[in-house]
Structures are given as structure tokens and as C-alpha cells.
Amino acid sequence: MLKQHPGQPFGAHLPHQITPEFVREEVARGRAIIPNNINHPESEPMIIGRNFLVKVNTNIGNSAVTSSVVEEVEKMAWSVRWGGDTIMDLSTGKNIHETREWILRNSPVPVGTVPIYQALEKVNGKAEELTWEIFKDTLIEQAEQGVDYFTIHAGVRLAYVPLTAERLTGIVSRGGSIMAKWCLAHHKESFLYTRFEEICEIMKAYDVAFSLGDGLRPGCLADANDKAQFSELETLGELTQKAWQHDVQVMIEGPGHVPMQMIKENMEKELKDCYEAPFYTLGPLTTDIAPAYDHITSAIGAAQIGWYGTAMLCYVTPKEHLGLPDREDVRDGIITYKIAAHAADLAKGHPGAQLRDNALSKARFEFRWEDQFNLSLDPERAREFHDQTLPKDSSKVAHFCSMCGPQFCSMKITQDVREYAKAKGIGDIKIAIESGMQEKSSQFKDEGAEIYKNV
Amino acid sequence: MSATSVDLVKETKKLSEEVSRPFPKSKKIFVQGSRDDIRVGMREVICDNTATSDGEEINPVIPIYDTSGPLTDPNVEVDLSQGIDRIRSAWIAQREDTEALDELTSEYGRARAQDADTAAIRFGIQHPPLRARSGKNVTQMHYARQGIITPEMEYVALRESLRIAQTTSWATFWRAFASSDYS
């Protein structure tokens, strides 16, 4: 039950016992963050860093039209139920200030936002009319409500905007495009970049962590790892150093759309250029041809980059690129990302990560169906799928399932082999199989050696 | 209170059963830290015993990292209009580096607090906002660099370790494990 394969941690250091002192060192070093605004005392402390369990972020947010306060609070509760480690409130409509208050007062997990979205609402959607004063007031407004981390696209520098001109899909980050538009309209560096130290002053007065936004992330495979993306990443490294001079916590946002063979380069470059600040990636999506299944295209990349060292994975739902996710989409997205994160923990060799796998496998082998459901990431759906073909309660103690039926269950056969070995007092399974075979063989010969018999 | 706000509060008090019902055969456990108010919530899945020809084999409970806090805890009555427990308030206060402000600092926040149109959907309680005292830095990174281990850091350490050895059924399991052939 405690068996675990050695991992390949790619330089991560995973101690057998995580001590408070180890946590302190990692936070001091900037290799991990504990996003805990002093105005969000409802949140249970959690850590984001490559030497800890890989985390999953889920997004909620109303569109301008729908969504009442109640619905938004329910969405938050739904996300944390399935295992979202943080939530980002990406709401854009009216009443977002009031809705956010309800969410924060009831959220046991850290809440992140992209403050430029709300600032843009305040200037009626005209990016060029954004000012430092409006933005600063928005930061303080949200910091005093208790937002735990801010996505800030301070790495979108004026000189990088032209680098996106040759791209297949240009700038796909909403925050990135807002800031690019502002830079071009004013032909100046953005106030996020020029006022960065002033932003740090606000962050440290409330303990809001930076999530330095990747405004120039690739929006398709063709644009992956290009000059625009990597130039911005280098700037994020420079800003990380500045934030750390103020003892402000930082994580770095990452792509996007990247084919598998190019994923590792992203992680290595981030660790080097951003001094091992935690990486927080959206996927990445490993192919562009599967709209409606982008939770899967992206979870493939997420599992890989999580293994290489990404600390938090931002989930993607089946509705990505298509529309707003409903409740079932959110659940599918979260479970898909819990799979990616856990697969990464196992591959890194996180101590104890395999215990749940072993427990579930043992339950499966022993036909303890209820335990198998209950140990799974989504017990409700596992049970529902089982019951679609074998709805009776008696089937939940049955030593088979509907996949192979009672006569051909490999697990049942293996168990029979083991029982046979035990009954015959044979310690070695191989010998048991051999002796069982010989017994069958003599029986076969004794009965006339006919392959087909009338029964 | 207007009719709308009464309705809203009534409607918003409780989460729906669908999002808050506990998972089957799971229970919330709390791992105690060095002080009474460090209680790290986890979920334990209770497994059936295995029937073998030699009798019942005990299967240990399996601890699971739990992000849902009190929202799925059947022993906690969550009233959304009050908010959940403010578990870190004492830790923050004891550091004596923050001040409670008399009013919100942001212009927008102040304007919204007075806005009649949104009064009906406003959260009913306004906790005074906290801010670092002048010259103070309240980040976890700042404390860490001073060599201070905060309750937040200890909480995280317990949470990440999934302290299985502390739970009683594991003690039973360890005994069974020591004499089993699963190693």
C-alpha cells in the first residue's frame, strides 16, 4: 500500500517531511508563495511552489448580462468542492464590486483577479482612457476587499507590441491587448511598467501577491516560443527582482498554446529568467484542432509542464474558445486538471502521492466498488457510470463489472490464482500458475484431449 | 430593509444541496498544529474491510487534501449572509503591524458603499479594512525573510504533509502493515 515509484523531479527538491521551516525557506527564497491578503482572513493558507503539491486554479465570473450574486457564490462553492485550490474572479459586468465581496466573505481559498478588467469598466471600455489614478484606486479597492493575488500585465512593453505583428493570432490575452492598445495610443511604456514600484507599495500594505501576466502568450501553436513571448518573460524576470526588493510575493503566468516538444523550454527559461519564482500556466494546449475538447488538449500540456516544475495549473473547460462554461463544464475542467496535477505529483515523486492510487487499485482488485467510487476524484460520476449498466445494489458487491462480464474478469482470475496458490500452500505465484496449468493439462488429457466438447 | 434585499438575503443564506453535500463515506478531520487555532482541515475516506480466508483485513482511511473548507462540512451551518469563519484574524492581529481603518481608502469603494442602487445586493457586514501600519510590511515573504515562521506557514506544512500518521485508524493500519506481506 505504501509502495511508490521513484520520481524524476527535474531539480525540484521534495523533502520527505514538509516542515514549517522548509516552508519559510521556500517563501523567503521566492520559490513559493502563500497568497493570503490580510483582508481575506477566511482563506485557509495554501502554498504555490514547485517543491509542493501542484495546484489548480479555476475561473469564475459573470458576463455582463446574467449571473446574480447567488449564482456567483454557488460557482465558487462548486469550484472548491471539486478541488480548485484558488479561484480567479474574472467578472466584467456591473455589480462586480458587490459580488466580489460576497465571494470573498465565503471563500475558503485564495481569490485572484485581473484588476485591469474592472478599471476598464470604469472608463467605459476605452483602453486608451485608462489612467494610473483609476488603476491605483482599483487596486486599493480590491486589496481592501481581500483579493489575494492580482494579475498584472506589466511585461507588455511598447517595444514588444510590433513583435506580434507577424503572428498568426496576434495578442490573445485580454489584459495584454488592453495594455498593447494603451501603449500604442499613447506611444509610451504602460503605467503598469513605469509605476511598478508604486504598485509594490500597495501590494505589501495588504499582502497581495503578484501574478505577473503573460499578455503576449501565444494563442496558437504557430506562435509558440516566439520573440514576443520570450521577451515578455525576460521582463517579468526583471520585475520579479524589483518586487522581491519590496518582499512582495510573485508568481509568473505562462502559456498558452505550445506543442509538446517545445514545452520544456518554457519551464527552463522561466526558472532561469525569473529566478525560480513559481510558474502558473494556462494549459498549455498541445494542439489547436479540438475545440469542445480543449480541457483535454490542454491537460496533456499541463501534466507535462507540471512535471517539469510548474506550480499551479489554470484549468481550461470544454467551452474554451466557444462560450461560457456551465456547471458541468466547470466540473469537467477541474477534474481534468486535478488529473494533470496529480499525474505531475506522481511523476515528480512527491512523497505519499501514490497512496491514494494504491488504495483505489486495491479496492478495485478486491471488488470493493463503493470504496473505489469514494476514493476517486469524482465519486458521483464514477458511481453514475457504473450504475448505467449495472444499476442494482447487488452489483456493487459483484466480483466483476459490465466491461468483461463475470467469466472474463482478469482481476477475478488473478484472485482465483492466488487463492489456488494459498490452498495448495504454494508461496510463489509463478509456481502456482505452472502447477495450475499442469493440473488443467492433465485434466484435459484425462478427458480425452478434445478441444470442443458438448456440454 | 427593502423587499428585494430581504428576498435576496433569504435566498442567499444557504448553498444548494448540490454544491455542499458531503462526499459519501468521507469525513472532515482536523490536524492540530502547535496552537489551538491552527486546525488543518482534511477529508478522510473510510474504506471497508477486506474479507479474506483468514478473516477481515483492515483497510486504512485515506486522507485527501481538501479545498472546500467549511462549505462541505456537515457540522458547520454556513450562513452566506454572515460569511464563513475568519480563521486568520487572530494571527494577523497578534503580529501588531496592521491597523483597522475607519473607512475605505479607495474612492470607488467609498462611493459604492453609499450607492442606493446596489444597497439591496450589498453584503450586510462591513468589516473595517486592515492595512499595514506606516513603515510596516505585512507580506508572508517579509516575515519569512526575517526568519519568522507564521501560523500560515505552519498550517501549510501540515496541509502539504497530509499527516497520516496522526490519525487513529492509521495506527491500526501500521500494526497490520508491519506483519503483512504488502511491503
Structure explained in plain terms:
The complex is a heterodimer of chains A (455) and B (183). Helices cover 46% and strands 8% of the residues of chain A. Chain A is of the alpha/beta class and 455 residues long. In chain A, α5 runs parallel beside α8. In chain B, the strands form 3 sheets. A 3-stranded antiparallel β-sheet of chain B has the order 1-2-5. Chain B has a two-stranded antiparallel ribbon with strand order 3-4. A two-stranded antiparallel ribbon of chain B has the order 6-7. The radius of gyration of chain B is 23 Å and the shape is flat. In chain B, β3 (50-52) and β4 form a beta hairpin. Chain B has 183 residues and is of the alpha+beta class. The longest helix of chain B is centred in the C-terminal third of the chain and has 11 residues, at 151-161. Chains A and B meet through α1, α2, α3, α5 and α8 of A and α1, β2, β5, α4 and β7 of B.
- Biggest pleated-sheet summary of chain B: 3 strands, antiparallel
Please count the helical segments of chain A: 17
- Give unreliable regions of chain B as ranges: 1-6, 177-183
Would you tell me the overall average pLDDT of chain A? Answer: 92
Alpha-beta classification of chain B: alpha+beta
Beta fraction of the residues of chain B?
A: 15-25%
Q: Average pLDDT across residues of chain B?
A: 86
Beta strand % of chain A? 5-15%
Identify the quaternary structure here.
heterodimer
Shape of chain B: flat
Write the layout of secondary structure elements.
The complex is a heterodimer of chains A (455) and B (183).
Chain A: H1 20-29, E1 32-33, E2 48-49, E3 55-60, H2 69-81, E4 86-89, H3 96-106, E5 111-113, H4 115-122, H5 132-145, E6 149-152, H6 174-186, H7 191-194, H8 196-206, E7 209-212, H9 227-245, E8 250-254, H10 263-273, E9 279-282, H11 294-308, E10 312-314, H12 327-348, H13 355-365, H14 369-374, H15 379-389, H16 410-423, H17 429-446
Parallel strand pairs in A: 3-4, 3-10, 4-5, 5-6, 6-7, 7-8, 8-9, 9-10
Antiparallel strand pairs in A: 1-2
Helix pairs in contact in A: 2-3, 4-5, 5-8, 10-11, 11-12, 16-17
Chain B: H1 3-12, H2 17-20, E1 26-32, E2 39-45, E3 50-52, E4 55-57, E5 62-65, H3 89-94, E6 98-100, H4 107-113, E7 130-132, H5 140-145, H6 151-161, H7 168-178
Antiparallel strand pairs in B: 1-2, 2-5, 3-4, 6-7
